[in-house]
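Open question from group meeting: does this chain pack into something compact, or does most of it stay loose? Before anyone orders reagents, we agreed to write out a predicted structure and look at it together. Recording both the input and the output here so the notebook holds the full record.
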Amino acid sequence: MAKTILVVDDSSSVRQVVSIALKGAGYDVIEACDGKDALRKLTGQKVHLMISDVNMPNMDGITFVKEVKKLASYKFTPIIMLTTESQESKKQEGQAAGAKAWIVKPFQPAQMMAAVSKLVLP
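Structure tokens returned:
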């Protein structure tokens, strides 16, 4: 059975690039355009990993991570932040919220896939 990864980004082109890379590696992908949309799509199904942008309308990535960690079904789901933010303070905020990895855009799909394969739940 394919593993499912949730991709949260307000940029449809970024979601597309990430989805193509993930689908090419055999993952199922759920796409969401911001944190609120992503939370709506988390309906109890098994999600093995989440990849989220930081700066998004409606609900930003850090708030999304905090909200996900409150949900019993997803408390232990690893989250990768994929963002243009590279300051240490933002990274620390993300880690404090529960993000497991921080990838700065523009990113190499290979770099992202290495993080995915390391963190995706069995």
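Observations to bring back to the group:
The mean pLDDT is 96.
The first helix runs from residue 12 to 24.
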